[in-house]
Specification:
Elements lengths: L2 H21 L6 E5 L4 E6 L4 H12 L3 E10 L3 E9 L5 E9 L5 E6 L2 E6 L3 E4 L3 E4 L1 H21 L1
Parallel strand pairs: 2-5
Antiparallel strand pairs: 1-2, 3-4, 3-9, 4-5, 6-7, 7-8
Helix pairs in contact: 2-3
Length: 155
């Protein structure tokens, strides 16, 4: 690997660390860095499902040109993906997923489709990806946290 690629990798990592520190962002569980495209992919896999989605939202709020999409995967899993750029121009991809039932939702078997109903408001067919807004994801996270709190109090 040529020396300039090491410097590029160092520059990308310094940029990401600085971005995280100055904005008090949660640490991703997995990072994939591409020096060629000057991009980074971060994935959140630990904590509760609402916390993982909230981590993506926290990072998303710091990005320009934000794009968010969610997908209802097999097994009743909701996957959230976000893309955007930092102020320094670093391209970021963010991802998190969690069971629909942990996100104030349920999976409905309505022939010929299985639907994920989220927070009693959103419905998403299995294997379907939909562009979503920051506020819509925030609504699901808030509903999931409220549901979890209510269950803890009841127990």
């Amino acid at each position: 690997m040529p020396a300039n690629e090491f410097r590029s990798l160092d520059r990308i990592l310094r940029t990401v660390r600085g971005h995280m520190r100055t904005r008090s962002l949660p640490r991703p569980d997995r990072l994939v860095v591409s020096t060629r495209s000057r991009s980074l992919h971060a994935e959140f896999t630990s904590g509760t499902a609402p916390d993982r989605l909230a981590a993506v939202l926290l990072w998303s709020a710091t990005l320009d040109g934000l794009s968010l999409a969610w997908t209802h995967r097999s097994g009743g899993v909701l996957a959230l993906a976000a893309t955007g750029r930092t102020a320094s121009g670093l391209s970021l991809g963010l991802a998190a997923s969690g069971p629909v039932v942990e996100l104030a939702g349920r999976v409905l078997d309505l022939w010929p489709h299985r639907l994920a109903e989220l927070a009693g408001v959103f419905a998403l067919a299995e294997h379907h990806t939909e562009i979503v807004t920051y506020d819509e994801v925030a609504h699901v996270v808030t509903a999931a946290r409220a549901t979890a709190s209510a269950l803890e109090v009841a127990a």
